[in-house]
Design brief:
The chain is of the alpha/beta class. The protein has nine helices and eleven strands. The protein has helices spanning 51-58, 62-78, 94-102, 115-124, 159-169, 189-193, 202-211, 227-236, 254-272; strands at 2-3, 10-11, 28-29, 32-34, 84-88, 107-112, 129-132, 144-150, 170-181, 215-222, 282-288.
Length: 291
Protein backbone atom coordinates (compact mmCIF):
# COMPACT_ATOMS: atom_id res chain seq x y z
CA UNK A 1 0.00 0.00 0.00
CA UNK A 2 1.03 3.59 -0.56
CA UNK A 3 1.19 5.85 2.48
CA UNK A 4 0.49 9.56 2.54
CA UNK A 5 3.33 11.34 4.30
CA UNK A 6 1.03 14.23 5.22
CA UNK A 7 -1.97 12.53 6.85
CA UNK A 8 -0.83 8.91 7.19
CA UNK A 9 -3.65 7.44 5.10
CA UNK A 10 -2.90 4.31 3.09
CA UNK A 11 -4.26 3.68 -0.38
CA UNK A 12 -3.72 1.43 -3.37
CA UNK A 13 -1.68 2.21 -6.45
CA UNK A 14 -3.18 4.81 -8.76
CA UNK A 15 -1.93 6.67 -11.81
CA UNK A 16 -0.64 9.45 -9.58
CA UNK A 17 0.29 9.84 -5.92
CA UNK A 18 -2.58 12.15 -4.87
CA UNK A 19 -3.86 11.10 -1.46
CA UNK A 20 -7.60 10.33 -1.64
CA UNK A 21 -7.97 11.30 2.02
CA UNK A 22 -6.31 14.73 2.27
CA UNK A 23 -5.54 15.54 -1.36
CA UNK A 24 -1.77 15.83 -0.86
CA UNK A 25 -0.05 15.51 -4.22
CA UNK A 26 3.77 15.35 -4.00
CA UNK A 27 5.62 17.55 -6.49
CA UNK A 28 7.91 16.40 -9.26
CA UNK A 29 11.54 17.42 -9.50
CA UNK A 30 13.39 16.73 -12.73
CA UNK A 31 10.62 14.33 -13.68
CA UNK A 32 10.65 12.29 -10.45
CA UNK A 33 7.95 12.24 -7.78
CA UNK A 34 9.59 13.94 -4.80
CA UNK A 35 8.65 13.13 -1.20
CA UNK A 36 11.50 15.13 0.34
CA UNK A 37 11.96 17.99 -2.13
CA UNK A 38 13.92 20.03 0.39
CA UNK A 39 16.65 17.34 0.27
CA UNK A 40 16.62 16.65 -3.46
CA UNK A 41 19.65 18.79 -4.19
CA UNK A 42 21.26 18.70 -0.74
CA UNK A 43 24.64 17.07 -0.14
CA UNK A 44 24.38 16.19 3.53
CA UNK A 45 24.79 12.40 3.28
CA UNK A 46 26.61 12.06 -0.03
CA UNK A 47 28.38 14.34 -2.45
CA UNK A 48 26.01 14.41 -5.41
CA UNK A 49 28.80 15.72 -7.62
CA UNK A 50 30.39 12.25 -7.41
CA UNK A 51 27.47 10.43 -9.03
CA UNK A 52 28.90 10.81 -12.53
CA UNK A 53 32.26 9.39 -11.46
CA UNK A 54 30.61 6.52 -9.59
CA UNK A 55 28.51 5.71 -12.64
CA UNK A 56 31.68 5.49 -14.70
CA UNK A 57 33.65 3.38 -12.23
CA UNK A 58 31.10 0.95 -10.80
CA UNK A 59 30.69 -1.31 -13.81
CA UNK A 60 34.40 -2.15 -13.97
CA UNK A 61 35.44 -2.01 -10.29
CA UNK A 62 35.97 -5.40 -8.61
CA UNK A 63 34.18 -4.49 -5.37
CA UNK A 64 30.97 -3.22 -6.96
CA UNK A 65 30.82 -6.16 -9.38
CA UNK A 66 31.43 -8.78 -6.68
CA UNK A 67 28.97 -7.13 -4.30
CA UNK A 68 26.29 -7.22 -7.01
CA UNK A 69 26.77 -10.96 -7.46
CA UNK A 70 26.59 -11.49 -3.68
CA UNK A 71 23.35 -9.49 -3.44
CA UNK A 72 21.81 -11.42 -6.33
CA UNK A 73 22.82 -14.73 -4.75
CA UNK A 74 21.22 -13.66 -1.45
CA UNK A 75 18.00 -12.73 -3.25
CA UNK A 76 17.82 -16.15 -4.91
CA UNK A 77 18.82 -18.05 -1.79
CA UNK A 78 16.66 -16.41 0.85
CA UNK A 79 13.73 -14.84 -1.06
CA UNK A 80 13.19 -17.00 -4.17
CA UNK A 81 9.49 -16.25 -4.43
CA UNK A 82 9.83 -12.46 -4.35
CA UNK A 83 7.71 -10.55 -6.86
CA UNK A 84 8.51 -6.97 -5.83
CA UNK A 85 11.68 -5.22 -4.65
CA UNK A 86 12.49 -1.77 -3.28
CA UNK A 87 16.05 -0.47 -3.15
CA UNK A 88 16.47 2.48 -0.80
CA UNK A 89 19.38 4.72 -1.75
CA UNK A 90 19.81 3.28 -5.24
CA UNK A 91 22.42 5.87 -6.22
CA UNK A 92 23.24 5.57 -9.92
CA UNK A 93 21.22 2.35 -10.25
CA UNK A 94 24.10 -0.13 -10.52
CA UNK A 95 22.62 -2.62 -8.03
CA UNK A 96 19.06 -1.96 -9.21
CA UNK A 97 19.92 -2.62 -12.85
CA UNK A 98 21.73 -5.83 -11.90
CA UNK A 99 18.75 -7.07 -9.89
CA UNK A 100 16.38 -6.15 -12.74
CA UNK A 101 18.45 -8.19 -15.22
CA UNK A 102 18.88 -11.16 -12.89
CA UNK A 103 15.16 -11.29 -12.03
CA UNK A 104 13.22 -10.23 -15.15
CA UNK A 105 9.85 -11.05 -13.57
CA UNK A 106 10.55 -8.93 -10.48
CA UNK A 107 8.82 -5.52 -10.17
CA UNK A 108 11.66 -3.19 -9.15
CA UNK A 109 11.43 0.21 -7.47
CA UNK A 110 14.35 2.45 -6.62
CA UNK A 111 14.58 5.50 -4.41
CA UNK A 112 17.29 8.09 -3.86
CA UNK A 113 17.32 11.30 -1.89
CA UNK A 114 19.31 13.11 -4.61
CA UNK A 115 17.64 13.53 -7.98
CA UNK A 116 21.09 13.67 -9.59
CA UNK A 117 21.47 9.97 -8.83
CA UNK A 118 18.01 9.12 -10.15
CA UNK A 119 18.88 10.52 -13.57
CA UNK A 120 21.65 7.92 -13.91
CA UNK A 121 19.45 5.16 -12.45
CA UNK A 122 16.73 5.89 -15.00
CA UNK A 123 19.16 5.21 -17.84
CA UNK A 124 20.61 2.09 -16.23
CA UNK A 125 17.32 0.52 -15.10
CA UNK A 126 14.69 1.79 -17.55
CA UNK A 127 11.93 -0.54 -16.33
CA UNK A 128 12.32 0.46 -12.68
CA UNK A 129 9.89 2.82 -10.95
CA UNK A 130 11.99 5.62 -9.42
CA UNK A 131 11.12 8.11 -6.68
CA UNK A 132 12.92 10.77 -4.66
CA UNK A 133 12.53 10.34 -0.91
CA UNK A 134 14.12 10.50 2.51
CA UNK A 135 14.93 6.96 3.75
CA UNK A 136 13.63 7.99 7.17
CA UNK A 137 10.12 8.50 5.70
CA UNK A 138 9.18 5.82 3.18
CA UNK A 139 5.76 6.33 1.50
CA UNK A 140 4.82 2.63 1.49
CA UNK A 141 3.32 0.27 4.04
CA UNK A 142 3.42 -3.52 3.65
CA UNK A 143 4.16 -3.19 -0.07
CA UNK A 144 7.36 -5.07 -1.06
CA UNK A 145 8.43 -8.70 -0.87
CA UNK A 146 12.05 -7.61 -0.41
CA UNK A 147 13.52 -4.26 0.62
CA UNK A 148 17.21 -3.46 0.40
CA UNK A 149 19.75 -0.78 1.22
CA UNK A 150 23.32 -1.30 0.07
CA UNK A 151 25.98 0.80 1.76
CA UNK A 152 23.37 3.42 2.60
CA UNK A 153 22.44 3.45 6.28
CA UNK A 154 26.00 4.25 7.41
CA UNK A 155 25.43 7.70 5.86
CA UNK A 156 22.39 8.40 8.06
CA UNK A 157 22.60 9.48 11.68
CA UNK A 158 19.28 7.91 12.67
CA UNK A 159 19.79 4.46 11.16
CA UNK A 160 17.23 3.00 13.58
CA UNK A 161 14.54 5.15 11.93
CA UNK A 162 15.56 3.84 8.51
CA UNK A 163 15.41 0.23 9.67
CA UNK A 164 11.97 0.88 11.12
CA UNK A 165 10.79 2.32 7.81
CA UNK A 166 12.24 -0.64 5.90
CA UNK A 167 10.33 -2.95 8.24
CA UNK A 168 7.11 -1.03 7.64
CA UNK A 169 7.46 -1.09 3.86
CA UNK A 170 8.01 -4.87 3.65
CA UNK A 171 5.05 -7.25 3.50
CA UNK A 172 4.59 -9.56 6.51
CA UNK A 173 6.91 -12.45 5.76
CA UNK A 174 8.94 -10.23 3.42
CA UNK A 175 12.69 -9.86 3.40
CA UNK A 176 15.43 -7.35 4.08
CA UNK A 177 18.90 -7.23 2.51
CA UNK A 178 21.57 -4.85 3.80
CA UNK A 179 25.24 -4.24 3.21
CA UNK A 180 27.27 -1.89 5.39
CA UNK A 181 30.97 -1.15 6.03
CA UNK A 182 32.37 -3.07 9.00
CA UNK A 183 34.91 -2.53 11.79
CA UNK A 184 35.19 0.91 13.39
CA UNK A 185 38.95 0.27 13.54
CA UNK A 186 39.01 0.73 9.75
CA UNK A 187 37.74 4.32 10.06
CA UNK A 188 39.89 6.66 8.00
CA UNK A 189 39.77 9.75 5.85
CA UNK A 190 38.01 7.63 3.25
CA UNK A 191 34.98 7.30 5.55
CA UNK A 192 35.03 10.99 6.43
CA UNK A 193 35.16 12.06 2.79
CA UNK A 194 32.49 9.51 1.87
CA UNK A 195 30.31 11.14 4.57
CA UNK A 196 29.90 8.01 6.62
CA UNK A 197 28.49 8.44 10.11
CA UNK A 198 29.77 5.07 11.33
CA UNK A 199 31.27 1.72 10.49
CA UNK A 200 29.40 -1.22 12.04
CA UNK A 201 30.21 -4.07 14.34
CA UNK A 202 28.29 -7.23 13.46
CA UNK A 203 26.65 -7.37 16.89
CA UNK A 204 25.46 -3.76 16.54
CA UNK A 205 23.87 -4.35 13.15
CA UNK A 206 22.20 -7.53 14.37
CA UNK A 207 20.81 -5.75 17.43
CA UNK A 208 19.48 -2.79 15.45
CA UNK A 209 17.78 -4.99 12.85
CA UNK A 210 16.22 -7.11 15.61
CA UNK A 211 15.06 -3.99 17.46
CA UNK A 212 13.26 -2.90 14.29
CA UNK A 213 11.37 -6.21 14.37
CA UNK A 214 13.31 -8.29 11.85
CA UNK A 215 14.30 -11.93 12.34
CA UNK A 216 17.90 -12.46 11.22
CA UNK A 217 18.32 -15.09 8.51
CA UNK A 218 22.00 -14.60 7.63
CA UNK A 219 24.75 -12.30 8.83
CA UNK A 220 28.21 -12.62 7.36
CA UNK A 221 31.26 -10.54 6.67
CA UNK A 222 32.72 -10.24 3.20
CA UNK A 223 35.90 -8.67 1.83
CA UNK A 224 37.55 -10.99 4.35
CA UNK A 225 40.59 -12.23 2.46
CA UNK A 226 41.43 -8.67 1.44
CA UNK A 227 41.14 -7.31 4.97
CA UNK A 228 44.93 -6.99 5.51
CA UNK A 229 45.17 -4.89 2.33
CA UNK A 230 42.29 -2.72 3.56
CA UNK A 231 43.99 -2.07 6.88
CA UNK A 232 47.23 -1.16 5.13
CA UNK A 233 45.39 1.22 2.82
CA UNK A 234 43.41 2.83 5.64
CA UNK A 235 46.53 3.39 7.74
CA UNK A 236 47.93 5.49 4.91
CA UNK A 237 44.74 7.57 4.97
CA UNK A 238 44.81 8.47 8.67
CA UNK A 239 46.58 11.76 7.93
CA UNK A 240 46.17 12.46 4.19
CA UNK A 241 46.94 15.72 2.47
CA UNK A 242 44.22 18.22 1.72
CA UNK A 243 44.06 16.99 -1.89
CA UNK A 244 43.11 13.44 -0.85
CA UNK A 245 40.68 11.90 -3.35
CA UNK A 246 38.40 9.21 -1.84
CA UNK A 247 37.54 7.89 -5.31
CA UNK A 248 41.18 7.04 -5.99
CA UNK A 249 40.62 3.67 -4.28
CA UNK A 250 38.09 2.81 -6.99
CA UNK A 251 40.44 3.50 -9.88
CA UNK A 252 42.11 0.10 -9.88
CA UNK A 253 44.33 -0.89 -12.83
CA UNK A 254 42.97 -3.84 -14.80
CA UNK A 255 45.91 -6.11 -13.95
CA UNK A 256 45.04 -5.78 -10.24
CA UNK A 257 41.27 -5.45 -10.53
CA UNK A 258 40.81 -8.95 -12.01
CA UNK A 259 42.55 -10.98 -9.26
CA UNK A 260 40.86 -8.91 -6.52
CA UNK A 261 37.49 -9.69 -8.06
CA UNK A 262 38.31 -13.40 -8.16
CA UNK A 263 39.22 -13.34 -4.47
CA UNK A 264 35.78 -11.93 -3.65
CA UNK A 265 34.18 -14.53 -5.93
CA UNK A 266 35.91 -17.20 -3.83
CA UNK A 267 34.45 -15.63 -0.69
CA UNK A 268 30.99 -15.80 -2.25
CA UNK A 269 31.47 -19.54 -2.86
CA UNK A 270 32.31 -19.98 0.83
CA UNK A 271 29.22 -18.01 1.85
CA UNK A 272 27.08 -20.08 -0.55
CA UNK A 273 28.44 -23.20 1.14
CA UNK A 274 27.04 -21.97 4.45
CA UNK A 275 30.10 -20.29 5.93
CA UNK A 276 29.52 -17.08 7.89
CA UNK A 277 32.81 -15.22 7.64
CA UNK A 278 33.71 -13.67 11.02
CA UNK A 279 35.64 -10.60 9.87
CA UNK A 280 35.79 -8.47 6.74
CA UNK A 281 35.56 -4.98 5.37
CA UNK A 282 31.79 -5.25 4.89
CA UNK A 283 28.73 -7.01 6.30
CA UNK A 284 25.82 -8.65 4.50
CA UNK A 285 22.59 -9.09 6.46
CA UNK A 286 19.51 -10.98 5.31
CA UNK A 287 16.47 -10.81 7.55
CA UNK A 288 12.73 -11.38 7.46
CA UNK A 289 9.71 -9.50 8.74
CA UNK A 290 7.63 -12.03 10.72
CA UNK A 291 4.26 -13.06 9.33
Amino acid sequence: MRSCLRCGATFGATEDWRCPQCGFDPPRIEGFVAFAPELARANSGFDAAQFEEYARLESSNFWFRARNRLIQWAMKRFFPGARSFLEVGCGTGFVLSGVARAFPALAVTGSEVATAGLAFAARRAPRAALIQMDARRIPFRGEFDVVGAFDVIEHIEDDRAVLGELYGSAVPGGGLLLTVPQHPSLWSEYDARARHVRRYRAADLRAKAAAAGFEIVKLTSFVTLLLPLMYASRLKQRAPGKDYDPLADLRIPAWLNWPLEKVLDLERLLIRAGVSLPVGGSLLLAARRPQ
